[in-house]
Design goal:
Blueprint: H1 2-15, H2 21-34, H3 39-51, H4 55-74, H5 107-110
Helix pairs in contact: 1-2, 2-3, 3-4
Amino acid sequence: MNEAKGQYALAAEAGGDQGDPGALLGLYEKMIGLDRADLETRLKMARLLVKTGSIDRATAELNETAELLLARAKCPSRAHPPGSPQDQGRRRPDPGQPGPRPGEGSPAATRPSP
């Protein structure tokens, strides 16, 4: 999957601003399809959508990007959707193991109350 995304990125870079906007948008959409949390590509796509006059689509793309950023800020461990390249290798809890006991596992739990 990363190899395909890299190939799309090279093609998009080669096309640049002089290329066909429709083809470039197609490449961006394919890249986002491979990595939903690719904020950089989402922003490039929104910028191109504005240039081509597709303001509603650009707004929708920027809203989705903002939602991903908010999700990342609220819960960094859920910043990348399962299966995305950034999610690869992320340690998941073993369902057969008990979770942390109360007061363990989070800094907030060990902080004295005000």
